[in-house]
Amino acid sequence: MKGLVLWGINNIFAVEGLEDHQKRECRIKGKKMNLGTRFYNPLSPGDYVEFEDLEEPGQGLLIKRYDRRNSFARWNKKGRAIQTLGVNMDILFCLVSPNSPPFRPRFLDRALILAELGKVKTGIILNKTDLNVSSQVEERLKIFENFGIPVYRTSCVSREGLETLQAALTGKTAGFTGQSGVGKSSLLNALIPGAGQQTAEISAKMARGRHTTNFSIMIPQAGNSGYIIDTPGIRELLLWGIRSQDLDHWFPEFLEPSEHCSFKGCRHLQEPGCGVKQAVQEGRIHSDRYESYCRMMTELMEAEKKY
Ligand code: GDP
Ligand code: ZN
Q1: Which ligand sits nearest to residue 272's alpha carbon?
Q2: Which candidate, 21, 2, 12, 1, places its Cα nearest to that of 227?
Q3: Do residues 201 and 219 lie in contact, with contact meaning Cβ atoms separated by under 8 Å?
Q4: Is the pTM of this model over 0.90?
């Protein structure tokens, strides 16, 4: 039978049967699901699987994972492996706040690259619009809008933008990611009554003794109109699968200026005659985006040295 993975860790997954809509607790059958060892978690919320029921009611065995349409994953430093946070999503919403906690554009830069790497369509949510939104925040968001990424503005206090966002996610499988404190739980609760509580209960049950849950949870939207995948509150999004010399490909506004670099294979750091640095100086590339690039470059070069 075919099923949908809702959540799970280690070897136990909550799987919803596509035909009977019943939830089962499934284990992986032997070594049949040969999915490689580069991954922190073999299955992610959003995965379609083949399973068979066991005699014990509510228990099943997983036999096979179907191919993924797309995936959002980060490098898990502790586990030294790729951690998949969500798959088969129609859209991934990346949440930020204008302040309290401060606006963190570098989280967006990373989240959007990792999503694109996994072929996931994205949208940005600026939550807490009832607080002061500075012109610097607007300017930085404009860059993403110019790339064609929609920016939704919401407030759980004034309820601004909730209907528009609701319309954008109804009937879809929508992921939500954001750093702690930006209001992800509040927003999910405002959009899907009880969502926050549901994910909190699941995390508490699954975490057993850990301080925080470190995995995503998929829950249905009201009236069987799609799902949401709530990712864990993320402190850092580390890149994977990108070579340092290719990093500039992921910064669309670097493309044209990099054609004017004196050196072929210029990394746009200390090299003389760099078209990208020239563009930063002239304000054609936002200096903060360049800063983001430099930090990612340092991280990738460090990682490459280790292998
Ligand atoms: P999470 O860590 O991203 O899940 O964030 P929470 O939903 O727990 O919210 C963190 C804090 O921000 C809480 O004190 C919320 O009451 C507050 N908060 C959430 N949304 C808004 C909003 O739209 N405006 C304001 N001013 N505060 C908000
Ligand atoms: Zn250059």
Answers
A1: 2
A2: 21
A3: no
A4: yes
Q: 37 CA to middle of ligand 2, Å? A: 36
- How far does residue 182's CA lie from ligand 1's centre (Å)? 6
Tell me, rounded to whole angstroms, the distance of Cα 134 from its chain centroid.
25
* Contacts with 291 (C-beta within 8 Å, 6 or more apart), sequence order: 106
Geometric angle at alpha carbon 120, from 115 and 125, rounded to 5°: 70
State yes or no: pLDDT of 211 exceeds 60.
no
* Longest pairwise C-alpha distance within the chain: 70
Q: What is the pLDDT of residues 150-164, one digit of tens each?
A: 999 999 999 999 999
Rounded distance between C-alpha atoms, residue 171 and residue 78, angstroms: 36
Cα separation, 40 vs 248, in Å, equals 27
Of 181, 180, 183, 173, the residue nearest 152 (C-alpha) = 183
Q: How far is CA 198 from CA 103, 132, 164, in A?
A: 28, 31, 23
CA 303/CA 307 separation, integer angstroms: 7
Write phi, then psi, for 142 (nearest 5 degrees): -60, -35
Cis peptide upstream of residue 57 (ω within 30 degrees of 0): no
Ligand 1 nearest atom to the CA of residue 95, by list position:
3
**69-123 pLDDT per residue, tens:** 999 999 998 888 899 999 999 999 999 999 999 999 999 999 999 999 999 999 9
Distance CA 224, CA 88 (A): 17
Residue recorded with tokens 């995948």: 229
SS3 237: coil
